Amino acid sequence: MFKGFYTVATGMIAQQRRTELLTNNLSNANTPGFKADQSTIRSFPDMLMSSVGNTNATAKQQMGSQYMSQVGALNTGIYMQETLPNYIQGQIYNTDFSTDMALIDGYLPQNEEGITGSIFFRLAHPDGGEAYTRNGNFTLDGQGNLVNAQGLYVLSDTGQRIQLPNDDFRLDETGAIYVNDQQVARVGVSFAANPNMLRKQDNGLVRTENGENLPTAYGANGVAFTLRQNYLERSNVDSGRTMTDLMTAYRAFEANQKVLQAYDRSMEKAVNEIGKV
C-alpha cells in the first residue's frame, strides 16, 4: 500500500516541475531571443515481483526458480531527468531601432553527438568573463557604450567595449559597424559547438559551466551566419502548444492527486475499521 503512495507522489512532483517549466516558457513568449526549455521525464527502474510457492523451504531454496512464480512488474514512479533549451531560431521582426540587432543562423555544424551548434552575442559579465545572449535589444548608455537592457557591455570581436558617438551608425551583414562610412568595430559573436552544455541565467543570459569564454564564430569551421540591423529575434516558444502541454500536465497532476486520495481513504478504512477487529 505504501508503495502506491510513493509512486503517486513521484508523478505529482514530476508534473508540478513540468508545469513550472511550461509556465516559465509561456511567460517569456514575448521576450526577444528567449529559448524555450524542454523536459525529459523518465520512469524509475521497474521491479519484477515474484511469489514463493513453498513457504517451508529455506531462504536459499526460495531463491530457486522452482519455488518462485512471477507476479509481474511493479513501477516505482517517474522523475524529470533533465531540462534542455531548444536553440532553434525564432522569427525575425522589424523594430526600426538602429541599436536593435538580430543574429540569423546560416549553416551551423553538428558535433560528433549530432547536436547542432548555436551562435550568441558576446557580453561582458559583471562577475568577470563573458555571458552570451540571443537578445539583440541593445541601446547606448551615457558614455556611448553599446549595452543590453540590463546594462551589460556588448563586446566586439576583439573582446572590447563598443563605443559609438550616437545611434546614427550602420551595421552590415558581417557584423561590421560603420560611422560616417568608417568601420569602428565588429559585433562580437561566439559559437557553442554543444549549446546544451551552457547554463541559463536570468534575463536571457547563458554562460559556460567552467566560466571559460566561447570561441569566436567568425572564421569558425563550417559556421555561416549574418546580422541584421533594426531587427530582433522573437522567442521560439509556441504559445498554442505550450498551453496544450500545460493543460496535459495539469490533468496528469490532477489524476495522480485523485489516486492519492483513494489510497488515503483505503488507509483510513484499514486503520479505523480493520484495526478494531
TrEMBL record:
Residues 5-35 form the Flagellar basal body rod protein N-terminal domain. PROSITE patterns: FLAGELLA_BB_ROD. Pfam families: Flg_bb_rod, Flg_bbr_C, LlgE_F_G_D1. Residues 228-272 form the Flagellar basal-body/hook protein C-terminal domain. It is found in: Bacterial flagellum basal body. The keyword Hydrolase does not apply. Its main location: other. Residues 115-178 form the Flagellar hook protein FlgE/F/G-like D1 domain. Belongs to the flagella basal body rod proteins family. NCBIfam families: FlgEFG_subfam. This is Flagellar hook-basal body complex protein. It comes from Lysinibacillus pakistanensis.
